[in-house]
């Protein structure tokens, strides 16, 4: 018997209006499904729509047509507030640009999403800080951290609420080779430990090879 799917996208279409008039179709019937704990790389040429697809999977944007279902609940059909709630409690997000909160120290950044989700667990946050090599920096400001440290913190923040789904957009895109390898290994280890499924948008063959499955986006469709 197949395991119940965590995430299902069915026949997603998305077209953007162009500033000068006209429109640009970006996703043209994209479907995928992800089992709990599965890891998936989304690859494709620059501009092929990978980030757009990730945003639809995260409920950050809505498709023009098609559905995104998370744990059996229709994410894409929910009104904005309910989608934001689902994102807070069920999805961890990691971006290329780290997106840390500059006015909060490392400890508060780490705990931020878990607090929002009403699932702060001080012991788990301490474990995450330790595992991510950030324990000595807990009272530092994010701007004083290296790029690698900032991305490790962003991963910890995304996993602090133990979401069943982690979505990452070029998580190693701003890092040198050594930091990229460390961040990739930690992201995979901690996702596996928490049971989170992972979808990673990437241009990196190394990152793509580290995922259990790869899908390539081309001409608005996945293969
Ligand atoms: N909000 C938006 N409004 C208008 N056009 C958009 C918007 N978001 C994305 N696009 C366009 O959709 C296309 C796909 O963009 P997207 O960022 O999803 O591609 P990508 O595959 O992630 O690219 P890259 O690898 O360069 O990050 C691009 O042509 C982009 O200009």
TrEMBL record:
This is Putative ABC transport system ATP-binding protein. The keyword Nucleotide-binding applies. GO terms for molecular function: ATP binding; ATP hydrolysis activity; transmembrane transporter activity. The keyword Transport applies. SMART domains: AAA. InterPro entries: AAA+_ATPase (IPR003593), ABC_transporter-like_ATP-bd (IPR003439), ABC_transporter-like_CS (IPR017871), ABC_transpr_LolD-like (IPR015854), MacB-like_ATP-bd (IPR017911), P-loop_NTPase (IPR027417). GO terms for cellular component: plasma membrane. Keywords: ATP-binding, Nucleotide-binding, Transport. Residues 7-223 form the ABC transporter domain.
